Predict the structure.
Amino acid sequence: MPSDSNIQERRRQLLAKEKELTRLSDELARERRELPWVPVGKEYLFDTDEGTKTLAQLFDGRSQLLAYHLMMEADWEEPCVGCSYSADHLDGSVSHLNRHDVTLIGVSRAPLARMEDYRGRMGWEFPWVSCIGNDFTFDFGPSTPERELHAFSAFALQDGTVFHTYSTNDRGTDVMNPTWQLLDRAPYGRNGFEPARRAS
């Protein structure tokens, strides 16, 4: 059995790695902010619960827009389970983001009425808009006509021009789901159902 001093030393070593990971995350955030801003030249129209809007109008008077691409195609009855799980975490952040001049939306290429039905069932309050009929998820997410994937995109609005600043997909969206981060720190991890381990 490891001694108490050995266990404490392993925990100290782990803490040092966690601090280094935090510093690396800060550096990655800086590099994201330094990516070139690319003007969005194509016009996209979105169906919203307030009518049709352009991409610039989705900013809702703010200068920054974060868009979570929920996987839901035109013929799906509801979005994928994993996307819904992550979307469950969004409402609590909306008001805080707004105070930082950031608008957060969900976007899917499905009929708005079907999305609104599901949104009501889930109790979501964050804006969720439909890009059905345009190429938004193809241009800024990893979606193709053969494959749909969840993604996350960032945009800036400056002097009337919308700029695409950043996108990520798949595991790059993990940060949106704080439950994953908490489960990663639980004894059995995010998959959760390992056999009971013997005490060290």
In short: The beta strands are 38-39, 45-48, 51-54, 64-69, 102-108, 128-130, 151-158, 161-169. DSSP finds six helices and eight strands in the chain. The first strand starts at residue 38 and ends at 39.
